Structures are given as C-alpha cells and as structure tokens.
C-alpha cells in the first residue's frame, strides 16, 4: 500500500480564485511596504524592496496570472519566498489559512485553464465546494515572455 503524504499549504486569494503554496517555500508574510520601481522591468515585476538588508524582487501575482484585482496595493500582502538563493515577494490580495491536503487528493490542472496560465499551476484539489490551485513557484518566478499575436 502506497504511503500518502500530507502537504501543508498557505492558502491565499487572488481575484475570486483561491491558491495554495507549500508552506515549506514560505519564509514570511508581510504588509506591502514602499516598493521601488525598476526601470524597464516586465509588467508583473512591481519593483524591489529592502527587507532587513536583502533586496527582494516583488512580483504581482494578479498581473502574472492575468487576474483582475480591485484591492488597493496597500491592503494586499506579500508572501516572501526564496528560489535559487534569491528572495522574491509574491503580492496577493488576501492570506487565508494553512490547509492540509493528502497528496492523493491532488489532480492536474483542469483542461479549461488557459494554456498561458496552466504552467503556473502544479495541481488542484477540491476543499469543500472550493477549487484550490497549487502554484508552481519555479514557473511563477521565471520571467514571462510576451508573445505576439
């Protein structure tokens, strides 16, 4: 019998969607400080902040995932993560709870997710009546190339 692993996910809101990120990837959650914009940065890069002596690149997930948000930046939160020894901040609308998910409950992203967004989603699961998408952090922090139509 295969052993099931339980994932702990930090859940958060973006627009009307709920997402999860493995808590092992989350270093801390902060309020939005003053952000220094970066000249010629991609649209989803809001800018940089200095967090206790470390320069942190700030990515607006709503822009990255092409989701509408009407929450003022000052009322949003930043999830600090680290990838390849570089800190990143992910701007989200609202932090929810830490949730526990059995790995056997995970499914792949539904086929109706737009191709451009599907690479950002590692999997999905249903929590009560709510569908929660699990972020693929490596894809989220990679620069998005604009495709010409």
Describe the structure.
The protein has 149 residues and is mostly beta strands. The chain has one domain: Beta Barrel (OB fold (Dihydrolipoamide Acetyltransferase, E2P)). 9% of the residues lie in helices and 48% in strands. The protein has three helices and ten strands, in the order βββββαβββαββα. The chain has helices spanning 61-64, 115-118, 137-141; strands spanning 6-14, 17-22, 26-31, 45-51, 54-60, 77-83, 86-92, 94-102, 121-127, 130-135. The strands form two sheets. Strands 8-1-2-10-9 form a five-stranded mixed sheet. A five-stranded mixed sheet has the order 3-6-7-5-4. Strand 1 (6-14) and strand 2 form a beta hairpin.
How many angstroms does the end-to-end distance come to?
Answer: 49 Å
Q: Percent of residues in helical segments?
A: under 10%
Low-confidence stretches: none
Structural class: mainly beta
Query: Strand order across the biggest sheet?
Result: 8-1-2-10-9
Order of helices and strands: EEEEEHEEEHEEH
Strand count, sense and barrel status of the largest sheet are: 5 strands, mixed
What is the CATH superfamily classification?
CheA-289, Domain 4
Name the average pLDDT. Answer: 85
Number of domains: 1
Strand residue percentage: over 45%
Shape: globular
| CATH class category | Mainly Beta
CATH architecture: Beta Barrel
Give a short summary of the structure.
The protein has 149 residues and is mainly beta. The chain is 9% helix and 48% strand. It contains three helices and ten strands; from the N terminus they run βββββαβββαββα.
